[in-house]
Design goal:
Oligomer: single chain
Largest sheet: 4 strands, mixed
Radius of gyration: 27 Å
Number of domains: 1
Shape: elongated
Number of helices: 1
Structural class: mainly beta
Order of helices and strands: HEEEEEEEE
Length: 138
């Protein structure tokens, strides 16, 4: 009986030490970056084509390089008071079930102003791109 207690006393630390290392097979998700790794191909224009129900629209688009598990969005920021005004766009990254690589982002603001001096794309307080001039397609 004494040897059974000794065996249990000796194996208990091994069981406790390995018990914390057990995994369920599920991997911890990796947090997406705050901003894209790289960006390219930025352009912006005002679409002011005539037609029934047509509304002038500022269109901003570009491409962002992201790791797997991330997705980018582009949203409207403030318009400054310059003449013509500049428009800010906010680039944000969030977690998503998608492969890594280049992703196109696009923003449409309608109704748009008749003209813009530039569009400044920012992410997490840092400037990513400045698009100037902003042409108007009529």
């Amino acid at each position: 009986m004494h040897s059974a207690k000794l065996l249990s006393f000796l194996t208990a630390p091994i069981l406790l030490a390995t018990g914390g290392c057990a995994t369920t097979g599920a991997e911890e998700p990796i947090a997406p970056p705050v901003c894209p790794i790289e960006t390219r191909g930025w352009n912006a224009w005002v679409s002011a084509l005539p037609g029934p129900g047509a509304t002038p629209t500022l269109i901003v688009q570009g491409e962002v390089l992201l790791p797997a598990g991330a997705e980018a969005t582009l949203t409207a920021g403030p318009t400054d008071r310059m003449m013509p005004p500049g428009q800010r766009a906010v680039l944000a990254v969030r977690g998503a079930d998608r492969p890594g690589g280049w992703q196109q982002v696009r923003l449409e603001i309608a109704p748009a102003l008749p003209a813009y001096s530039s569009v400044i794309v920012g992410c997490d307080g840092n400037m990513v791109a400045t698009i100037s001039p902003v042409e108007t397609a009529r």
